[in-house]
Amino acid sequence: MKYLFFISISFFNFYCCIAQQEYSIHDLKSGKFKEDSSYIYSLPFENNKKVFLIQAYDSKMSHKGEYALDFKVKKKTRICAARDGVVTGARADSDEGGLKPENMSDGNYISIRHEDGSVAHYWHLNKNGVLVNVGDTITKGQVIGFSGNTGYSAFPHLHFEVIGNDGKGNYKQLATRFNTNKGIVYLRPAHFYRAKH
Ligand SMILES: [Zn+2]
User: Fold this and answer.
1) I want to staple 189 with a disulfide (CB 3.0 to 4.6 A). Which of 56, 132, 171, 194 is the partner?
2) What residues have a C-beta under 5 A from ligand 1, the ion?
3) 3-state SS record for 70-138
4) Could you report the per-residue pLDDT of 158-175, keeping only the tens digit for each?
């Protein structure tokens, strides 16, 4: 009996310790990961919407050293909340975008804080493409805005990232897994995925 108890405790510890931060960027990019206990996000689009992921974690183009995702979507694509939360920031008045340094401050966005303190950022939204207000409570899957090409952006796309505690006391960008038509996965660049809410 004692032995069984020991086994179950060990298994529990083992299971809990495999958080997303245990993976190297190489593992994530090559799709090498085991089941873990991190939160499962929805893709930030309508259910069944097919999207192409251009850049994932540490992609060379503009995500070097970053844990962030770029989805190639047409302007005015409906953006949905990837997780329940409360809106902590939003901007919708910009109509400017490009790759000049001054474009860095031109992006429209929505920020949503989750119950574990992490915050998701949805960037480059269209002018007037924000359907929520700071303080609103948001449900996963809810349409929150429309994609665009504002801010530091070369083409219409959605930049999505989650910042939170990595379990070691650091507040940083986190790799997150998603429910997709290909199962529950860490997304890989240059792949198509379908949203599954
Ligand atoms: Zn990006």
Assistant:
1) 56
2) 70, 159
3) EEECCCCCEEECCCCEEEEEEECCCCCEECCHHHHHCCEEEEEECCCCCEEEEEEEEEEEECCCCCCEE
4) 999 999 998 888 999 999
